[in-house]
Design goal:
The complex is a heterodimer of chains A (about 180) and B (about 525).
Chain A: H1 2-25, H2 32-40, H3 54-62, H4 75-86, H5 96-100, E1 104-108, H6 118-122, E2 128-129, E3 137-138, E4 158-162
Chain B: E1 29-30, E2 37-40, E3 50-51, E4 58-59, E5 64-67, E6 76-77, E7 82-91, E8 99-107, H1 128-137, H2 150-153, E9 164-168, H3 178-185, H4 187-201, E10 205-211, H5 215-228, E11 233-238, H6 247-255, E12 270-274, H7 275-287, E13 293-299, E14 307-312, H8 317-323, E15 331-336, E16 343-344, E17 358-363, H9 381-385, H10 392-400, H11 404-409, H12 420-424, H13 431-523
Parallel strand pairs in B: 1-14, 9-10, 9-12, 10-11, 13-17
Antiparallel strand pairs in B: 2-8, 3-5, 4-7, 5-6, 7-8, 13-14, 15-16, 15-17
The chains are: A mainly alpha (about 180), B alpha/beta (about 525).
Chain lengths: ~180, ~525
């Protein structure tokens, strides 16, 4: 009897110590799930999910506050990737219309720009170049197409230009079930 | 010389009707210059070249009109003398049918050469780096169709020793005979190019792999080897079996070594070059000439006079076809490349590029419209013929389900798109189309991931900067406030003290004055 109690107590102490030690030694900083979710999000920082950027939305998903279907730029691909990561069921997109929009970048009509810097302050990724009373321009390679620069512009000189496919970025279409095209002997 | 060398067969492959007699019975014909030459800036794998000429400039033959902006890139040369009349987007030969940036030159008819660099007859005394620089200057890319910059390919970085140079003269696709004719007519140049390449990569021996349906070309090469006294180069006949001209397949056939998945032939001590590329290297090093023309096969029942033509790069395909007697009334489909790996052209108003080896105008009988695909019955025929030993039916399954992670587990990127699987498929499934779809989707996703990583870094940097600015602003305000308080507080105390002291002093002085006055009056 005594032996049994001592054994159990001893085991409990040993495991307790191991657990306590690992809690300190292998402590994880931050929220790894939020990091993984953030890595899947498209980082447009557009706020269409109603959060102030991709990271806050990722944290909200991680804590279960937000659904996984609120990222229109990511579209269905991102939603399915999130569902797989979190082991949830895929859900239809919150705003399907927004998700179907073609990828585009902001374009400043330079003749109309008055150099007010409001768009520069709004851009979440510093993709607009310019200074007070100087013409502004968008660095296309760094623009995420979030459209956050459109509302602040007092002269409405910023337009969204859809990104056209080049031979470099062109994708083979999914094979249609009708004859033709496919090249085989 | 004719002793039988061991051949290590590769897995799968197909015996195809080679249709080569249509175009290999006449010598290569010289094509006249067209009225407009269209030079695409992207004729190679890597960064597109950057134009260094303006509209209106006069250029000479062989002058660089677009420079290579990056290591993996190739310059573009003016292929004749004339005037630059346009720089803009124009239709190019691409499966998408999209346009890309091109430089248009109007030939002046003089065909006048620019100052060319010195021929390097003493190449054996030159360093490999010098020779690579020359190959790079000449804008040479893989002429077998892949168009990878040759100067990059021959730079093995000295990390792996290359013992064998393999020259790909298999030309395994039906219809194509441009390499066959090149070898028959320029066998000595091939052997010269072999000598240069062997020196550049430090290879001990060279094996030229050629399919046994090209006996004239093989004997021409053997004769050239004897004439040049080259004892380290050997012509090896391989059985005619598609796709023996695939790089990995040919290396297996000739050396018995297998290129590892995701690896380069350099990993097993081999470097492979196409035979036309080899001649271009000889031209660049021994004659100082850039790559500005190539031999193109024009064939198919849709062409009146099939044959091989020496075509200036930038020549529109419709001009080439018109020179070959035009279309016959049987033409149904226009292809760039062979019938197995080529792609359909949307228009014939696109230019011949460095890598364009063949233009096919096929009749309805030669290329019947494929019937609608039927469900896969898992017969396994595709597995039997796959030269890369993949599982085409599994890859098809995952491509159809858009499952790009699983399809990569089945080594999608080891697929060479040879088309054997689709050729034998009894259900007429366009398998290669599915793989190309999956590959381009995966590349797009990768590009998007890179872009989102960049956006995240920039967003984080911006947040950090805004936070820092806010902190700085706050600390500046705090300091200002403190300084103000200190100043006003400190001054007040001092002045009060001073005022009190001054007042006290005044009182004391007054008292002292009164006392002394009283004493004086008292003593009086």
């Amino acid at each position: 009897m005594i032996v049994a109690i001592l054994t159990i107590a001893g085991l409990a102490t040993v495991f307790g110590l191991i657990l306590g030690y690992s809690a300190i030694r292998f402590r994880v900083e931050g929220d790894p799930i939020a990091d993984q979710i953030d890595a899947l999000l498209p980082q447009t920082q557009c706020g269409q999910c109603s959060f102030a950027g991709c990271r806050p939305y990722a944290e909200a998903i991680a804590t279960g506050e937000a659904e996984i279907n609120r990222c229109p730029p990511g579209g269905e691909t991102t939603m399915i990737a999130l569902a797989e990561l979190l082991g949830r069921d895929p859900v239809p997109l919150d705003d399907e219309k927004a998700a179907e929009k073609p990828k585009s970048v902001a374009y400043i009509v330079e003749q109309e720009c008055i150099g007010c810097t409001l768009c520069i302050q709004a851009c979440p990724v510093d993709a607009i170049l310019g200074a007070a009373k100087q013409m502004h321009t968008v660095i296309i390679d760094e623009c995420t197409g979030c459209e956050l620069c459109l509302p602040p512009c007092p002269v409405e000189c910023i337009h969204m230009h859809p990104l056209e496919a080049t031979p470099e970025t062109w994708k083979w279409p999914f094979p249609a079930h009708k004859p033709r095209e496919a090249v085989h002997g | 010389m004719a002793e039988q060398k061991t051949i290590w067969p590769f897995h799968g492959g197909l015996h195809l009707d080679d249709h080569k007699q249509a175009s290999n019975r006449h010598p290569v014909q010289l094509l006249p210059l067209p009225t407009r030459l269209v030079l695409p800036l992207q004729q190679h794998i890597g960064q597109p070249a950057e134009s260094i000429v303006q509209v209106g400039d006069t250029v000479k033959k062989g002058q660089i009109v677009a420079r290579a902006p990056d290591y993996v890139s190739a310059p573009v040369h003016a292929s004749t003398s004339g005037r630059v009349v346009e720089i803009g987007t124009m239709p190019i030969a691409h499966p998408s049918g999209l346009s890309d940036t091109c430089i248009v030159i109007e030939p002046d008819g003089d065909d006048c050469w620019d100052d060319l660099p010195e021929p390097m007859a003493d190449f054996m005394q030159r360093s490999a780096a010098d020779l690579r620089e020359r190959i790079r200057w000449a804008g040479i890319v893989g002429l077998g169709g892949a168009a990878f910059p040759t100067a990059v390919k021959v730079n093995t970085g000295g990390q792996t020793a290359i013992d064998t140079l393999v020259i790909n003269a298999a030309e395994c696709e039906p219809y194509i005979t441009c390499d066959d004719l090149l070898m028959r007519e320029h066998a000595e140049d091939v052997i010269d190019g072999v000598a240069v390449l062997r020196h550049v990569i430090g290879a001990r021996q060279c094996l030229i792999g050629i399919e046994d349906n090209k006996p004239e070309a093989a004997s021409a090469l053997r004769q050239a080897i004897v004439d040049k006294g080259d004892h380290e180069t050997e012509v090896v006949m391989v059985p005619t079996l598609y796709p023996s001209g695939g790089e990995k397949q040919l290396i297996k056939l000739l050396t018995g070594r297998e290129v590892p998945s995701n690896g380069l032939p350099a990993a097993i001590g081999v470097l492979c070059q196409n035979v036309a590329t080899t001649v271009a290297v000889a031209d660049a090093v021994l004659r100082g000439r850039p790559l500005i023309d190539r031999i193109v096969t024009l064939s198919g029942q849709g062409i009146n006079a099939p044959g091989n033509f020496r075509v200036t790069v930038g020549t529109p395909i419709d001009f080439l076809i018109a020179q070959a007697g035009g279309y016959s009334d049987r033409v149904n489909q226009l292809l760039l490349g062979g019938p197995m790996m080529g792609f359909g052209l949307h228009t014939d108003q696109v230019p011949v590029t460095k890598a364009a080896n063949c233009v096919l105008a096929l009749s309805h009988e030669e290329a019947p419209s494929p019937p609608a695909e039927r469900p896969c019955i898992r017969c396994g025929e595709c597995v039997k013929v796959c030269p890369a030993q993949l599982l085409p039916q599994q890859m098809f399954w995952h491509a159809r389900a858009h499952d790009f992670d699983r399809i990569q587990e089945y080594h999608l990127f080891d697929c060479i798109e040879c088309g054997c699987c689709a050729y034998v498929c009894p259900a007429d499934i366009p398998l290669v189309h599915y793989y190309r779809y999956a590959k381009t989707e995966i590349w797009t996703q990768e590009r998007e991931r890179e872009k989102s990583d960049l956006a995240r870094r920039r967003h984080d940097a911006r947040q950090a900067r805004l936070e820092r600015l806010e902190q700085e602003r706050k600390s500046r305000l705090r300091k200002k406030k403190e300084a103000l308080e200190k100043k006003s507080g400190g001054d007040n105390a001092d002045s009060k003290k001073a005022a009190i002291q001054a007042a006290m002093k005044r009182v004391a002085d007054k008292k002292a004055a009164q006392q002394s006055a009283a004493q004086e009056s008292g003593s009086d």
